[in-house]
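Structure record:
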Amino acid sequence: MDEEMVLCAASSYEQKYYLNPEFESLPEAVKQELQIMCVLYTADVGGVLLLVFDENGNLEFRSLRYDYETNAFIFDPATTNQLNSMFEKDKQNSTLLTPEVWKKRSGWKKFVGWVGNLLTPFL
């Protein structure tokens, strides 16, 4: 598999469930269990849930419930110049995270990331 592929998804906002048509040949009982699991999860936790196969074939559980994204529209030139300057300074003090860098993380960093992912619903 060269890219990610969504198996199924559910949204508590739209109260909808999606099964990728490429998986229509799954046994009916499996499709029903996937739907029940996804819908119950989003009904309980809220947000959007995706089950995604990554490029290595691993099934990932992605909850967009904890994606606290906010948008702001700023039209003042002085403010936008200041924000652009801050952003450029942050970029200079940052490390580009490539797939190669990600794979070379130490065992400790992988463990901390795993624990953090587990604890996300409680943070």
